[in-house]
Design a protein that fits this description.
Jelly Rolls; 9 strands; alpha+beta; five-stranded antiparallel sheet
Length: 189
């Protein structure tokens, strides 16, 4: 073998070895790149599923209710039926449009647990329409009440409601003196 053949043989061995080495690097790099991409995909999907789960849980805990709050503090209806026949607490709604709402909701309780009290809830419209619903046996503990606006049968147009009243009448109580509290008055969609 002469020098030239030896150099060609060595060059061929060297070139073949360097090409195999480059192929191995490329395969290792692409394998790393693929694993990195899969890992990022898994992290993204996991993060997205956590976000959706906590968003759904948060909405369930908030009860997802859209409401218009009418009164910031509790109402105290103090009745004493010596000369009077009924005690009324009215909220001026100033021709409020409540057609987009479906329910009137509030919390109520009586002060004396032995008393038997029925509460009249009444709407009046700007068109002189009046409708009422009676709630029987108000509890001595805070209790939530929800009344569908459709139960107020005599109101045909909910576009201009002038007043909302809570009324305690002499013939709907056992005791002649007492207190009824009403709080958290709101309209719910």
């Amino acid at each position: 073998m002469d020098k030239k053949e030896i150099y060609e043989h060595l060059a061929k061995i060297y070139l073949d070895a360097s090409l195999k080495h480059k192929k191995k690097r490329t395969n290792g790099y692409s394998l790393f790149k693929n694993r990195y991409t899969y890992l990022l995909g898994i992290i993204f999907i996991f993060s997205l599923s956590l976000l959706v789960f906590f968003n759904i849980t948060r909405h369930k805990s908030l009860n997802s209710e859209i409401a218009l709050i009418l009164q910031p503090e509790a109402i105290k209806i103090n009745f004493h039926f010596d000369p009077a026949r009924k005690e009324i607490y009215s909220i001026d709604l100033n021709k409020l449009v409540i057609a987009r709402f479906k329910t009137l909701a509030f919390s109520a309780k009586k002060a004396n647990y032995q008393d038997n009290i029925s509460l009249r809830v009444e709407f009046r419209s700007a068109f002189k329409e009046k409708s009422e619903v009676y709630l029987k046996d108000i509890s001595h503990k805070w209790q939530d009440y929800k009344i569908a606006l459709s139960e107020f049968k005599n109101i045909s147009d909910w576009s201009q409601i002038s007043t909302l009243s809570f009324i305690v009448e002499e013939w709907n109580v056992r005791e002649k003196r007492g207190v009824v509290y009403v709080d958290n008055i709101r309209f719910i969609r």
